[in-house]
Amino acid sequence: MIASLLATPVNTGKLVVPHIRYLSILPPMIMIGGAVLLLALASLVSRPLRVRVGTWGTVLISGTALGISLWQWTDVGDHGAHTYVAHAVVMDGFSVLITMLISAAMLVTALVADGYLNREGVEGSEFYVLALVSASGAMLMGMANDLIIVFLGLEILSIALYVLTAYNHRRGASGEAALKYFLLGGFSSAIFVYGIALTYGATGSTNLTQIADFLAKNVLLTDGLLLAGVSLLLVGFGFKVAAVPFHMWTPDVYQGAPSPVTGFMAAVAKAGAFAALLRVLLSSFGVISSDWRPIIFGMAVLSLVLGSVLALRQRDVKRMLAYSSINHAGFILLGVESARASGVSASLYYLFAYTFMTIGSFAIVTVLGREGDGDHDLTRYRGLARRQPVLALAFAVLLLAQAGAPFTTGLWAKLQVVFAAISGGSVPLAVIAMVTAVIAGYFYLRVAVLMYAGGDDARADAPQPAGSPEPHAMISFASPEGAHANVTTINDELLMTGEAPAPFGEDLPSVLPVPALTGVAIGLCVGVTVVFGVWPSPLVDFAHQASLLFLG
Amino acid sequence: MDQYLPILLLGLLGLGFTVFSLVSSAILAPRKKPSAAKLSPYECGIVPNREPPQRFPVRFYLVSMIFIIFDIEIVFLYPWAVVFHQIATFGLIEVIVFAAVVFVSFLYLISNGALTWGPPKTLQSGLPARTSDSTISRISAARPEPGEAA
Fold this sequence. Notes:
The structure holds 2 protein chains of 2 kinds. By secondary structure, chain A is mainly α. In chain A, 71% of the residues lie in helices and 1% in strands. Chain A has helices spanning 2-7, 22-44, 51-79, 93-120, 126-143, 147-165, 172-203, 208-217, 224-241, 249-256, 259-284, 289-311, 317-338, 341-368, 384-387, 389-403, 409-423, 427-453, 487-497, 516-534, 537-545, and strands at 82-84, 89-91. Chain B has a domain at 59-111. In chain B, α3 (59-82) packs antiparallel against α4. Chain B is flat.
């Protein structure tokens, strides 16, 4: 019987090979092709590939992708935005800007990783290969016009990231974080696919444009299936962007992953997932925005509040930055929630600012983590300004930018999403966002004050187990006006918690070497943050022109 | 509601099969207590004279993973072969690209010694050469002292 089944001619119908405009998918092709070439090169040479070769290869590949995306930008400007490859991918200002952002993030990460890999004595090209593949997945998410392509990008992005998280195999925490990320990530991917299936069941298509068409032309008498599909999709996206209540993995994974990987993950995974989230919600489900806006509202409020409040309790810088990234996710959700074009460009601008701030911050954390990448306690930052004034200044600038200080991109980013929320009619959300920005300002300032005020001979804080998330242990000075407390109060608060003078790292070198390329990367991040903060118009205009193709 | 009838029937069929399996197994299964020979790992009549080895080399897992990579390649080649005439040149180029990517993973595996069965060779330079003397000294160093609990 099986033989007769096999012998039956398969009736596939006439296969039509879609017309492919290669320009539209060239950047991810270059990233994957470059990764394959790098892997082949590493396999064919007799010695393990030197780190420097991998670094320059990655810089070249991501630089080429950046150049191609500039070409795409002029093409979109000349010929307008279109869908390509059987309407599966779209090339519009939005997708091109996301591609640029991810290429730039990959380039900077390669510079940071060079110093890290040399310091840890890891040879071979695997780090760069995995990072390039992961970045190509994020690009695919940004340009996807079909839920299946979104899922494909999500998986390419995630699977490489799981491996990268476990890259430091000498640290137990790294492997633990990777396993946690893998199991939870696999689960969330499954939920996402279920969401795609239900959406397909409700609308008859996985293509974002066709879903929008269907919803515009038909009134669903029972929309339970569609709403279930959309909410499952939101779970999948919420996990990837680390929005509360799908954030549980974030602190552990951010802390356990090697620091350059954490910066890459925070920037690239968030950019890719937010890009797809914006496109799916606004171009496909724009008609039913009254249904999903309350969900996004709730997620945004929870992310903003929990992210900022829990970050106050952290003693580990990487965990603190992880909670702060949850807070940032809440801010970007403000732009999503507004469900309008100004919100899209505000979110895009925020992603741009956030990418450079976070990669720069984690680059500095990488340098200060010392060999083994395990030394991230807050007390290590005490008196850093005295030992390494330039590094401390750079970190202070990046932290203040994350807090939204003037003359940095952080301020413009926060202002734009808040204005978008107000124009979308969600004034309470805007107010909550601003209050949490003030709370978040406290823990950014705490590190800055530690670096500048605490001398080497200052008393160390009482040792606490790093990262014990205690949501109810609110601190009295977390009220909005209290966080505006002047510097001396904060400093007293810090010193009061100390009990005994502890010997400060006599066995450790006090001045940590900053590898040249890492220094370049940090300088690049600080430069972008400050230059476009003082002179915001080019980047803001750029984000405003980067509109979604189908935004009604 | 009509279109859900097949699903309902399939569900009933699944339930029926489960109940049938459990009930028939309960009725038909022998109720004698198993002997030692019955409980041995290989119930082939020959009593094993030593314990089976508890650990086996990680290379077995590697080989199975490599197998999966190429198995997936075959899975994709089959439908391509079926529709080859319809997507002639384009399909051929795409399959060559796909095969090349898989082949690079094969190169990577070979270069990392995943298929080198035998004494482990390391790519890292600077490790002392392995001689019989060094091995003997390592074994004697690892051996617990007579009084020590193992």
